Amino acid sequence: MLHFACRDRNILGIQSELLGAHTVGVRNLICITGDPPRMGTYPDATAVFDVDAIGLANIVTMLNQGLDIGGNPIGSQTALLLGVGANPGALNLDEQQFSQVYGVLQKLGQEAKQKGLSKETPAPQAAEAAKQIMEQFKTETQNLLTPEQTKIFAEVVTHFQVEPGKFGYNFNF
Q1: I need a labelling partner for 32 at 20 to 30 A (CA). Which of 81, 83, 107, 124 fits?
Q2: What is the pTM of this model?
Q3: Helices 53-64 and 11-23: angle between axes, nearest 10 degrees
């Protein structure tokens, strides 16, 4: 299964990659828009988004009908099975709200790193640290988010993993 993101691809490149994937036998796709660069370690980077996941799904549909992105016949149809990512708990934040919330998350991530928290932190300390960080997040975003948005955001931003004898966590800053 190919996980296909639109970020940093123009539509000609997308069409080419999809045709190439079909040619080598790939049939199953998960189509997503992709994260903006500001979500990563290079917040000043710009991105190319000629289409989003919906546009990508439309391109796949056209190729499956034997047409290119311009509506011209391509000789034969592709047989790509299309899947998409969805976020049923998506937060409807305007850009200013998102920037403020993201700023809080970056600050909390830096504080966690400064305290030496990592996946190697013993379970009791990791659990307590994660609880304190999320309480601080709730406090600092109470005027930006509804309680339900805060809960959803916390679940999306943090990932907790429990293994025998270990309690791991990952903050997606």
Answers
A1: 107
A2: 0.52
A3: 50
